[in-house]
Amino acid sequence: xxxxxxxxxxxxxxxxxxxxxxxxxxxxxxxxxxxxxxxxxxxxxxxxxxxxxxxxxxxxxxxxxxxxxxxxxxxxxxxxxxxxxxxxxxxxxxxxxxxxxxxxxxxxxxxxxxxxxxxxxxxxxxxxxxxxxxxxxxxxxxxxxxxxxxxxxxxxxxxxxxxxxxxxxxxxxxxx
Length: 176
Fold this sequence. Notes:
The protein has 176 residues and is of the alpha+beta class. Helices cover 26% and strands 27% of the residues. Strands 1, 2, 3, 4, 5, 6, 7 and 8 form an eight-stranded mixed β-sheet that branches. The radius of gyration is 15 Å and the shape is globular.
């Protein structure tokens, strides 16, 4: 797997709409994940993904190829108060988090999700955070192994229900 052809960078405001469409496509195709008519506010949030960058210390990252094609994306939060999830995660101190990781279905299996995750780990470490928090669902269970291989551990204290959907917390302790 040659991941050297991909660049992880901050998304440009001109790309926010395209990234929103990408995330809607990715999440709506997940087996067992709520559809737009079941959780319309969630999909509205995806469509307006760029709004997260209105908060300081929140970055919308994009994985692009040599043609600047967006292959994947993630939102990194250096301050958990802007994380915007249910449960207790937004109360965590000395913590960063990431949410809404998505990889274009045509680009899966190329290590892009891992590159985006590693960039979030790097940012949390550089910002002297003690931990990195993420959430996932059973529909995204294929990513769990990747997270665990990178050192994330299940943290049941971070679990919550989003409507009918159980959401599972993971935590990576950062040793600086």
